[in-house]
Each structure stands twice: as C-alpha cells, then as structure tokens.
Amino acid sequence: DTEVTQTPKHLVMGMTNKKSLKCEQHMGHRAMYWYKQKAKKPPELMFVYSYEKLSINESVPSRFSPECPNSSLLNLHLHALQPEDSALYLCASSQVGLPYTDTQYFGPGTRLTVL
Amino acid sequence: EDKVVQSPLSLVVHEGDTVTLNCSYEVTNFRSLLWYKQEKKAPTFLFMLTSSGIEKKSGRLSSILDKKELFSILNITATQTGDSAIYLCAVSYSGGSNYKLTFGKGTLLTVNP
Fold first, then answer.
1. What is the arrangement of strands in the sheet containing B4-7, beginning at the earlier edge strand?
2. Interface check A103 vs B, CB under 8 A
3. Among A107, B30, B33, B110, whose Cα sits 20 to 30 Å from the Cα of B43?
C-alpha cells in the first residue's frame, strides 16, 4: 500500500461551522504534513508531525488545529474559518522523521470552500 | 525574497521536443531538492536529489543537481501531451532543529500535439 488517503474530497462550510479533515497512510511513514494550496500557487507548508509529535507550525492561525492520534492518522480541525481559507488542503507523508528529509507522498487533497 | 526560483514560469512546446526546466535556490543548510509534477490535483513525486553531479533518470525524465552553483535542472525528452502539467521544485533545509520546505512557483508546461 503506497497510498495517502484524504477525506472528504470536497467540503463546503460556513464561517461558524466546525469540521475536520482526515488523512491516513499505512506505509509506516514517520512524518506527516499538512499543506495549503491556493489556485495557481505552489503548496505552502502548514504543519509537520514527526514521530507523532508536532514539530513544525508555520505560524498558522489558531482556527486550524492539527492532531495526530496515531502514526497512521493525521487530522486538521477547522473552526471559525474565513472565506480566504478556501483552498486545496494537501496531506503528505514521508518515511523518515525530522530532522531528516525524505520523499513526500501526497494525498489527493480536500477542496475546501468557506462561505 | 524568494528562496526557490523556477524558470521559465511557462513553456509551450510541440510533441517530440526536449525541454529543460530550471530551479535555483538560495538557502543555508541545504538538505535536498525535490521535483514534483502536478496535474489537476495533488503533486506526484518525480525525483529527490541530495548529491551534486549524480543524474537521476526515470524513463524520459532526468534531473541533476549542482550544489556549487545552487541549481537543478529537469529534462524531459520526446515530450508527449501527457507531460503537460505544472512542474514544482521544492528545497528542504534546516537551521538548528527547524525544518523548512519551500516550493518554487512552478513551471507550467504545455505540450501541443
């Protein structure tokens, strides 16, 4: 199994809603990542979990809250988002944890629209 | 200030042409450079380069890194319409315990039949 899965594929939410994005990998990878990608822009790193611990938080607003329940799962909890948060949210994983770098394998992404 | 610069930003070629995409970077404590292809959805991995001068090949694609001049190139020979995509270059680097991964803006490649 060389796949990173993400659910849901699409999500539409209001600014007062609370929702969660889910990412799963069963490759035994020890690092997992959340990225945000706006249209026609490259991905921007948001968070990195290495060995199930939050290692990197790239100054992301607190309305985004990551969680890593176990080594295979990564969640992104969303609350009180703004319309400008609408984007493609990508999850990725890599075999080795930080501080080492390794190939990152991306999931298909969740297309989020905030109304 | 952009730490990873890709050129050209867009390129239109005909099937069968050979293309060279460029990625230059300016970071401290370089760790690796990665190339990705992005079509409609998530990026897919192409190459990871850590050592200078060692060419990596996969079919019609190849890539090489020059750590002295701080750049990498991605070559695609005998291009096909299926090669049309955005090609992203990303550089990972660190400062102490901080890990950074920065993407370039990408090169939009269009291959016409």
1. B4-7, B19-25, B71-76, B61-66, B56-58
2. yes
3. B30
- Amino acid (1-letter code) at residue A15: M
A99 to B42: CB separation less than 8 angstroms, yes or no:
no
Is the peptide bond prior to B8 cis by the omega test (within 30 degrees of 0)? yes
Per-residue pLDDT of chain A (115 residues; tens, 9 = 90+): 568 999 999 999 998 889 999 999 999 999 999 999 999 899 999 999 999 998 887 889 999 999 999 999 999 999 999 999 999 999 999 998 776 777 889 999 999 999 9
Query: What helix, strand, coil percent values describe chain A, rounded to 5?
Result: 5, 55, 40
Cβ neighbours of A57 (radius 10 Å) = 14
Shortest distance between the Cα of B9 and any Cα of chain A, in A, equals 11
- Check whether the bond before A8 is cis (ω within 30° of 0): yes
Mean pLDDT per 10-residue run, chain B (113 residues)? 90 97 93 92 90 92 95 97 96 77 94 97
